[in-house]
Amino acid sequence: MKRTAVTSIAPPVVSAPLGNRVASRRDIDLFVDQVSWLGKHLRDSSRLGVMSWIGRALRPEVRDELRAFFRVDHQVHIQAERELLALLRRPWQKQSPRYSRLDMPERNVDWARTHVEELTSPPSRFWARDVVPMLDAGLLGGLCSLGRTMLDLGTLGPLSEERRAVREALRDVMAQVARTIGRRHGAYTHLHEQRLLRMDRETRSSAQAIRAYLAFWQDRFGAEGDTERLRAFAKEIEEADLRCQRRTLDSLLEVSVSIAVARAAQETQDTVDLPDGVRWEIEDVDERDERNVPRILLRAGALSCTISKNAPKGDALVPLLVDMGIEARGNQPDIVLTFAQKHADGQEDRIVVLADAKRNAEHDGRGYLATSVETAAVYAVSFGHLMGVRFHPDGHGRIDGDVLPAVSLFCRQGVKRVAGAGPRQEDIVARLRAPQRLPAVMALDFQHFFGGEGGTRWTPAIVGAWFGRIAREASAALRHRTAEHRSQSGGGQERGSQAQAARSVPSGRRERGRRDDGGDAA
Predict the structure, then answer these.
(1) Cα dihedral sign, 252-255-261-264
(2) Rounded to the nearest 10 degrees, what angle do helices 47-57 and 137-154 cross at?
(3) pTM attached to this predicted model
(4) DSSP annotation of 274
(5) DSSP code for 421
(6) 309 CB contacts (<8 Å, ≥6 apart)?
(7) According to the 3-state scheme, what is the secondary structure of 219-266?
(8) CA end-to-end distance (rounded Å), the chain
(9) For residue 187, what is the DSSP state?
(10) pLDDT tens digit string along 90-119?
(11) What DSSP character marks residue 12?
(12) Alpha-carbon distance 35 to 46, whole Å?
């Protein structure tokens, strides 16, 4: 059974008036478009791999609601895990060839041994090399890629103790194989399956169990093309989200925006939007955090950016609540961008930028947007020490920082102006690229970052300029910290104190001729 990568792009949808129903449709259009792009960059770039990635990226409440769709407790899934474990445990190193005697000559006849062993001329029987097909590095890489997806999908449902043991053994043997073959992550293909089916009975049995497993998932996804499969799955996610008690309706948009940020960074070519003129490259889209949630890793020269879901550690508000005897889980921003740069001695400086996805579909969305800005201000208190945020000392309550905007809101609707500019895209891009300071909290909406004809086609212009702005400021802040680090490690205390004094000047006043005409929130 041949499995193809999810690469098709969502077709354009005719524009229609605003409303909850259309908002939902646009959410799904954006989701399909972004996930289709992501599928090309996964290690296991199959439908199964894409579904595994999406499942791990969803909020736990939504994931729990989707267990009936994933059906990871089905017997065909359990049997495939066992058979894959047995297959990878088999000896696969190259062995010495064995010989057999044939009545008729075939391709593998060893003529030298035949003439030596047989007394008649011409020989009546023939000695042939019995070549045993082994699992090579490419096939093992495909099996490990499939195993990785199996393990990921299994985490989306409850596990028995017996199955936990099998999965742990599978994880160990995959790690052992990976140490031998290196980074081979090609997808398990139809050609791999055919090779296994031509081997001995035990190998064929394992291959047939894997085939049944893949056929099960093929049936779960239906018979339509990639786009329709993703669209149907997006509707499942939305319905599961509606059934959740929290009813935040952010799951689709949250996943879409995270991917859109990485896509905008990778597709941006304008030099002005690139840190030090170096283009961003995708290093990994399936790196994991400690909760097995996928992270997207980008790199531009010495600067890296990790796009993740879980909040950074060290929420400053949590200890205050704990001291009062109140249990606190901390604030949970939807998207965390961590910019990092390493020193020559191996130490690393980091700076964090936060974003929230807000599907404010009620009325014009303005009231929900105002509440979101208040939440963003709380983030500045909770994570300000990681974001380089400072509260302006002039008594006007303004928020300053190493990177502005420190918090960005990606909303469904309601943003009339972006940092004082708009509504034309050209004006917004120019404002994002201008040297004047940006507000600490800034919002974009579908009309700007979804963009395109009818508001349904991907355009990276606004998000690319936004990402370019925060990346440039993050790069400058990290370079400054590196200079301070070198100064302090070299004993230059006086130079270090001068640098620190220069750094204490608000970012809006460091450059001569800058106008401080931005507010603190869009």
Answers:
(1) negative
(2) 40
(3) 0.74
(4) S
(5) B
(6) 57, 254, 258, 289, 293, 295, 334, 335, 336
(7) HHHCCCCHHHHHHHHHHHHHHHHHHCCCCCCCHHHHHHHHHHHHHHHH
(8) 52
(9) P
(10) 876 544 466 777 777 777 787 878 777 777
(11) P
(12) 12
